Task: structure prediction
Amino acid sequence: MGRYDGKAALITGGTSGIGLAAARLLIERGARVMVTGRTETTLDAVREVLGDNAVAVQSDASSLADADALADRVRSEFGALDVLFANAGITRFAAFETVDEATYDEVFAVNAKGPYFTVQKLAPLLNAGGAVVLTTSVANVKGMPMVSAYAASKAALRAMTRSLARELLPRGIRVNAVSPGPIDTGILTRTIGPAAAAQAEAGMLANNPMQRFGRPEEIAEAVAFLAFDASIRPNHAGPPHCSARYPELRSAVAKPFIVSRMPRATSSESSPARRRRSSSTCI
Ligand SMILES: NC(=O)c1ccc[n+]([C@@H]2O[C@H](COP(=O)([O-])OP(=O)(O)OC[C@H]3O[C@@H](n4cnc5c(N)ncnc54)[C@H](OP(=O)(O)O)[C@@H]3O)[C@@H](O)[C@H]2O)c1
Result:
């Protein structure tokens, strides 16, 4: 028996890189997974690779009409969802002075507006105790050159993760984000070509404490943890302030899941401890 038998997950941008690695892992552990992408040939290839427990759907993550259609498809295929992994994203490399309006709008449409409305349209299908995971990036805090629009879009996503965590809390739905550093998915080469990618990668490696790129499978493990395993806390009473602030949660927190925000710092805790405890929605 798999750990996630009987569970259903939707992964946007699940046909490549991090999303595909997450799809493989969840399926390997027993879940049924719907993946989305834009490119029909890639979707066909992914249907072969992932097998019968996967449904691959063409859907543009920046389109609200596609998000509505995706919700209909999830309803007809799965009935309901346990996990929504809003992962689809694009990178655009350009010096700040050269970024035009179309590029800025494209990046924000896919990386910020897309996940926002995907969560809005799909959240009604999430079971209580379910989870949303979003993919932001270490660029949301690092001040990296050549990716100003991308970094800003991922910072917007980080901010909305925190608000959505609060808004979905009464339904017992946890909302978290992963913030990967550079991951070896080929996204750079596909975006800017091999020569420029090699140069950019050398710079990233030099600034990376691990001195290597991460692998998509490593991020997939973190996603699976946030999606499922972080909720398994038998006998966990839940953060006291949640049930106090949201009376409707009193019965829910008695069930085995943890919520996205940590308990409030006590008055005896130092400021750094308070800061650590209040920034728990992104890993
Ligand atoms: N790789 C890194 O170093 C890194 C670091 C931090 C954060 N991230 C983030 O991680 C996520 C995945 O990145 P990755 O490196 O795995 O990229 P990837 O290998 O290029 O995969 C991107 C996936 O998103 C899909 N996608 C892109 N735009 C889409 C759209 N408008 N609608 C629907 N699907 C769309 C792609 O499908 P199509 O090919 O069909 O478009 C593909 O399935 C992104 O949000 C990215 O910003 C990546």
